[in-house]
Amino acid sequence: MEQMNIVFTGHVDHGKSTVIGRLLADTGSLPMGKLEQVRKNCLSNSRPFEYAFLIDALKDEQAQGITIDSARVFFNTGKRNYIIIDAPGHIEFLKNMVTGASRAEAAFLVIDAKEGVRENSRRHGFLLSMLGIKQMIVLVNKMDLVGWNEAVYRRIVGEYSDFLKSIELEPSGFIPISAAKGANIIENYSEISWYRGMTVLEGLDSFRKEESLENLPLRIPVQDVYKFTGDGDDRRIVAGTIESGTIEASQKLVFYPSGKRSRINTIEAFNGGVPERLSAGQAAGFTLEEQIYIRRGELATAEGQPEPFVSSRIRVALFWLGRSPMVKDRSYLFKLGTGRINVRLEEIIRLIDASTLDSEVASEVKRHEVAECVLKLEKAAAFDIVEDNPSTSRFVIVDDYEISGGGIIKESLDDSHEATREHVWERNFNWARSEISIERRAEKYNQRPALIVVTGSKDSGKKAIARGLENLLFEDGHIVNFVGIGSILYGIASEFKKEQDRFGLRPARMIGEISHLMLSAGLILILTAIDLTQEDLEELQTVVGSGNVEIVQIGPANTDIQWNMQLEGENPETAAMKIKSYLLEKGYLFKPW
């Protein structure tokens, strides 16, 4: 039978765990003796028995009567198998609620009839909509505490329906229940005449299974590329989990954001038969016919299928869980798929009160707040928007080694490098590659190709440092070359002056193309430039590849450039040695065996 993930959520103490415990008990789905064991434990500790204890296995949860972490319960009906996720309702454990709900296809949201719609009732509903969960049934619990008053039930239905409508989420229905009494859990409660709708069990089976991810366009975030050398094995296996779509041998692939293309040669499997076809949810390993250089974080797609978006600016719906507010003048780590990119908050479009949906202008996003924002990535990423593919539109943000936020991508925004990316994709598509791969050159030269940009003011001493670095690496046997940016601008680039004026080509793009040629040959290129800006750097990274560019800032920065290493006050020899140590640490220079 098919399997479906269902999350139970809602405000703290509104009875989520009790509903699940009662559902399991009344359908005979508990392990033999489990119910009696919990009853006995309650009796021996002089505590009243609660069905929630069947779910809340942690001692802290039983002691405090709250759900702390998301618990998973396996359950089945005659229609399908279920994984039921019990998500915490307390605001302090909102991160755990989001983690649990992110794995669900549909949701039950529980509201206490006596307390009514509360802050987290709205907040959880809003977060469910942000996570792309479109199917929801609202359970109005503890109806016995209000004497099964129909007016109370109708008031909650009206209030919460209006709220859900405002966030474009339409519930499949509302069910009045008493989990403690077992009313309307698996059978209709005979003591009331005004409700004869579905029970919780019937509501569970009424959810529609989402469209199979196999039917969506192919998306494989590249986890890594593995090279085996034993026994003459020269395979380069691209590995990653298939988020959506399917792959099979001979399929043409396009990798984004680089735009590089190749065809699947073989599908590989560890310690087993080689499959002919793999689909969404499976780990995939495959070799390529043409040995293109790709790295972790690229998104593999199928040629001829809808393409992902590629940009360094995105509009997002974001919720913040960090201890410190999210602010504009800080750099954070943006994790999307297998990609890891530095990101800054460019603009807060509006701050949204998740419980009232009121919006306001703000300069920061505080803990437990939701905001519509524009994020600026350090380099372009490949992604989908949430309406097209939720799995490749969800992201998290890390601040100081802790997951502090997350959200969904709503829109790809234009950035100033879109035309350059189009040029790079066309270049890569028509590129006649050497039979000598980048990896073979790296092994031969004992180095990884890189563009080292040494920038600073006119009299900062950057050229002396760059020349010192070149000489140091050359004496160690590395293939290296130093070029002052003026040599390019007044040399080969001057021939393109007319094209620059006519088509608006930037000097950084031309410099990037020349650098790309040298890096393709496996060289380490050291380039000096006066006060490069972040815009110049991003243009270079777009053309060359962001993973191959390192910025060394000499002295204080007079521009907005985001450098990788800053040196100030050292003599050229000491500075060159520090840069060499940095290159060793980053893996550009290989240590001898």
Question: Explain this structure to me?
Answer:
The chain is an alpha/beta fold. It has four domains: 3-206, Rossmann fold; 214-302, Translation factors (Elongation Factor Tu (Ef-tu), domain 3, Beta Barrel), CATH 2.40.30; 313-415, Translation factors (Elongation Factor Tu (Ef-tu), domain 3, Beta Barrel), CATH 2.40.30.10; 442-585, P-loop containing nucleotide triphosphate hydrolases (Rossmann fold), CATH 3.40.50.300. It is 27% helix and 30% strand. It has 15 helices and 29 strands. It has a seven-stranded antiparallel beta sheet with strand order 7-15-11-12-14-9-8. Strands 2-3-1-4-5-6 form a six-stranded mixed beta sheet, sandwiched between helices. The longest helix is centred in the first third of the chain and has 17 residues, at 150-166.
Number of helices: 15
Strand content: 25-35%
- Helix vs. strand class: alpha/beta
Compute the gyration radius: what is it? 29 Å
User: Which sheet architecture does the biggest sheet show?
Assistant: 7 strands, antiparallel
Strand order of the largest sheet: 7-15-11-12-14-9-8
How many discrete domains?
A: 4
What is the CATH topology of the largest domain?
Answer: Rossmann fold
Determine the CATH superfamily of the largest domain. Answer: P-loop containing nucleotide triphosphate hydrolases
Helix content: 25-40%
